[in-house]
Amino acid sequence: MQVRDRLLCGEHHRDTTGKPPLWNKKARAWYLEYKNRPCTDCGVKYPPFVMDLDHMQPELKTGSPSMIVRFISCKDDYDAMVAELTTCEVVCSNCHRYRTVGRRNPLVRGAA
């Protein structure tokens, strides 16, 4: 089952014009604002498109945050997105790579 299938409530997918619903626009704006902060590891503030969301407990991950945001269609989906993002830390792309590699190889600089 894909992330999209798990998160859509089904009844609000798209309106008759085929445009994404208003919840999708709100979710995207909230998502970008959520990522508009300094990196948790290095403290540098980059533009939101450079920032990643790192799951603090990867085993509890239910989906990719960017994919979740893409398919928001109603308040229930929005609430699911917020719940998922609260399990993440905002880090820059470089620090996220170090964290990911560090989980696999503790000898790498910046290991988690």
Condensed summary:
The chain is built from 5 helices and 2 strands; from the N terminus they run H-H-E-H-H-E-H. By secondary structure, the protein is mostly helical. It has one domain (3-7, 20-104).
How does this structure look, described?
- This protein has helices at 3-7, 22-34, 65-70, 75-85, 93-104; strands at 51-55, 88-92.
- The protein has 112 residues and is mostly helical.
- It has one domain.
Q: Descriptors for this entry?
A:
single chain, 112 residues, mainly alpha, two-stranded antiparallel ribbon, 5 helices, disordered N terminus
**Uncertain runs:** 1-12
Provide the structure class.
Answer: mainly alpha
Pattern of helices and strands: HHEHHEH
Q: What does the main sheet amount to?
A: 2 strands, antiparallel
The helicity comes to 40-55%
Number of strands: 2
Rg over CA atoms: 16 Å
Number of helices: 5
Spatial sequence of strands, sheet with the most strands: 1-2
Q: What shape does the CA trace take?
A: globular
Number of domains: 1
C-alpha end-to-end distance: 30 Å
Q: What portion of residues belong to β-strands? A: 5-15%
Chain-averaged pLDDT: 76
Topology, pairings included?
Elements (H helix, E strand, L loop, with lengths): L2 H5 L14 H13 L16 E5 L9 H6 L4 H11 L2 E5 H12 L8
Antiparallel strand pairs: 1-2
